[in-house]
Write a structure and sequence with these properties.
This protein is α/β, with parallel strands linked by helices. The protein has helices at about 30-40, 55-70, 95, 105-115, 130-140, 170-180, 195-210, 245-255, 270-280, 315-325, 345-350, 380-390, 400-405, 410-420, and strands at about 10-15, 20-25, 45-50, 70-75, 80-85, 90, 115-120, 145-150, 150-155, 165, 185-190, 210-215, 220-225, 235-240, 260-265, 285, 290-295, 305, 330-335, 355-360, 360-365, 370, 375, 395, 395-400, 420-425. Strand 10, helix 6 (about 170-180) and strand 11 form a beta-alpha-beta unit. The structure holds uridine-diphosphate-N-acetylglucosamine.
C-alpha cells in the first residue's frame, strides 16, 4: 500500500490516562458498509444506507463508485447512491491499490453486466493477500478470467448456480460469490462460507433488495432471481455496529480501568471476545442498547488464537496484544489468518513491551507499565492499538501515520477524549 500523504495533523499524541468513564457511540461497521455499497451496483435506482461511518475507506469506495458512474450523496451518516442503468464496469488501479476491499465489486458487476475489469490488488501490510479463492468460486458459476496489464478481465455470458466449495471460509470470496450468485440462473450452495456478522448484514441487505439467500445447515443457499431492486424504505438500510471499533474502546477500558458504556455495540457479535476479556478480568454487561465495560485493577494474561468467526477475529488481535503487554503473567498469541500480521509488535517493543515472536506465535510477558515513545501506525487496527497502549504508558506516545487510522475510525481522538482519555491530534 502507498504511504498516505504526510500532513501536519498526521500524528496522534496519547498520554497516560486515569480510569475512563462515560459513554461512547459505536458506529456502523467498516467491513460491512463497503460491501453493501458494492452490492448497490447490482440494481439500478436510488439506494439509501444509514448508520454509515464517516471514515476515509467509505470516501474511497464513494470515489470508486463515482468513477463507475454512480451519483453519491453523503450527509450525517447517510449515504445515497443513485445507480444508473449503464455503468463503467472498471475499477482502476489507483483506487484498488488504496483499498483492497474494492475487489468485491467484481461479483455484482459480473452478475448485472456479464463483464468487469478490476485492477489486481497489490500486497499490503499483512503480507500477500491472494484472490485465488474469489476467482475459483466465480469460475464455478461460469465466469472466465484473463489477466492483462495488471488488471483482471472477467466475462460471463450467463452465470449458472453451482456447488461452490471454498477451501477456507474467506470473507471476501464469500461476499464476491454471494453477490454474483444472487442473479445466477438456479441454485447455488456455498460450502464453507464465512459466517462473520458482516456476511449476515450483506445477506440481509441482498434479501431486502429481492434476493433469496439463506443458510441451509452449514451452507449458504442462494436461489438466483431475474433482477434486484433498491430496498423499499425511505430511512434506508441500517449498517450493523462495528465490532472492531467496539473492541478498541473495550481495550482502552481494560488498559486504563474505569467503566464505559459502548452505545450500539452488539454483544452477540463479540461472544468470543467478551469471553476472553472476562477471562482477563474485565466485567462486560450487555443490554439491548449496548455494552457496559468495566475494569478494576490489573488484567491477567490469557492465551489468544485467531480463527474465522465465531472464533476470535484477527482484527481484535492488536488490541488484545496491547492489553497483554501490561497484564500480569505470560500469554501466547497465535495468528492463524494473516501470518505477517505482527509488524506493530516492533512498535510496542519501543514502548517497553516484552514480546518475542516466532513464526505466527508471539509470547508476551506483561510489564508493570509501558513507557511512551514515538511510534508509527502501519495499518488501521494496529495504529489504533498503539494509541490505546499510549493511554496506559508513562509519559507521551506519539503515533505517526494517523491517516491509516482514519481509514476505519470516525473521530477516534474525540471519542476517547469523551470518555476521559488524554489524547490529541497534532
Ligand atoms: C476481511 C476483512 C479483514 C479481516 C478478514 C478476516 C474487510 C474489508 N476486511 O478481509 O478486516 O481481517 O476479513 O476476518 O472486510 N485468502 C486466500 N485467497 C483468497 C482469499 C483469501 O488465500 O482468494 C487468505 C488470505 O490471504 C488470508 C485468509 O485467506 O490469509 C483470510 O482472508 P479473507 O477472509 O478473505 O479476508 P478479507 O476478506 O481480505
Amino acid at each position: 500500500m502507498n504511504e498516505p500523504d504526510s500532513d501536519e495533523r498526521d500524528t496522534i499524541v496519547a498520554r497516560r490516562s486515569s480510569a475512563l468513564d462515560g459513554e461512547v457511540r459505536i458506529g456502523g461497521a467498516k467491513n460491512s458498509v463497503l460491501k453493501l455499497m458494492a452490492a448497490c451496483l447490482g440494481a439500478e435506482g436510488r439506494h439509501v444506507l444509514a448508520n454509515v461511518p464517516d471514515i476515509s475507506d467509505v470516501s474511497l469506495m464513494c470515489e470508486l463508485l463515482e468513477a463507475m458512474g454512480v451519483i453519491v450523496t453523503r450527509d450525517d451518516h447517510r449515504l445515497i447512491l443513485d445507480v444508473p442503468a449503464e455503468l463503467h464496469t472498471e475499477a482502476p488501479y489507483h483506487l484498488v491499490e488504496r483499498m483492497r476491499a474494492s475487489i468485491v465489486v467484481l461479483g455484482p458487476l459480473l452478475a448485472r453486466f456479464g463483464t468487469a475489469r478490476v485492477a489486481l490488488p497489490g500486497g499490503d501490510d499483512f503480507g500477500p493477500r491472494p484472490i485465488d479463492m474469489h476467482l475459483r468460486a466465480l469460475e464455478s458459476l461460469g465466469a472466465v478470467f484473463s489477466t492483462e496489464h495488471g488488471d483482471i478481465s472477467a466475462r460471463a455470458d450467463t452465470l449458472t448456480g453451482a456447488d461452490v466449495v471454498l477451501e477456507y471460509p474467506s470473507v471476501g470470496a464469500t461476499e464476491n460469490v454471494l453477490m454474483a450468485a444472487v442473479r445466477a440462473k438456479g441454485r447455488t450452495h456455498i460450502h464453507n462460507a464465512a459466517r462473520e456478522p458482516e456476511i449476515g448484514d450483506l445477506v440481509g441487505f441482498l434479501n431486502a433488495m429481492g434476493a433469496k439467500v439463506g443458510w441451509a445447515g452449514d451452507r449458504l443457499r442462494i436461489d438466483g432471481v431475474e433482477r434486484l431492486h433498491p430496498i423499499r424504505s425511505d430511512s434506508g438500510y441500517r449498517v450493523i455496529a462495528d465490532r472492531i471499533e467496539a473492541s478498541t474502546y473495550l481495550a482502552a477500558v481494560g488498559m486504563c480501568g474505569g467503566s464505559v458504556f459502548l452505545r450500539g455495540a452488539v454483544a452477540d457479535h463479540m461472544t468470543m471476545l467478551i469471553r476472553k476479556l472476562t477471562e482477563m478480568g474485565m466485567h462486560i454487561a450487555p443490554d439491548a442498547a449496548g455494552v457496559q465495560a468495566t475494569a478494576t485493577g490489573r488484567l491477567v494474561a490469557a492465551d489468544i488464537s485467531t480463527l474465522p468467526y465465531p472464533g476470535l477475529a484477527t482484527d481484535y488481535k492488536p488490541f488484545l496484544v496491547a492489553m497483554l503487554t501490561t497484564a500480569s503473567g505470560v500469554a501466547i498469541v497465535t495468528e492463524n489468518i494473516f501470518t505477517g500480521r505482527f509488524r506493530y509488535i516492533d512498535e510496542l517493543r519501543r514502548m517497553g513491551a516484552d514480546i518475542r515472536t516466532e513464526g505466527h506465535h508471539a509470547v508476551i510477558r506483561g510489564a508493570e507499565h509501558l513507557s511512551g515513545a514515538p511510534v508509527r501506525s502501519h495499518d488501521i487496527r494496529a495504529g489504533a492499538a498503539l494509541v490505546v497502549a499510549g493511554l496506559a504508558a508513562e509519559g507521551q506516545t506519539e503515533v505517526a501515520g494517523a491517516s491509516h487510522i482514519d481509514r476505519g475510525y470516525e473521530d477516534l481522538v474525540g471519542k476517547l477524549v469523551g470518555i476521559g482519555a488524554t489524547v490529541s491530534r497534532s
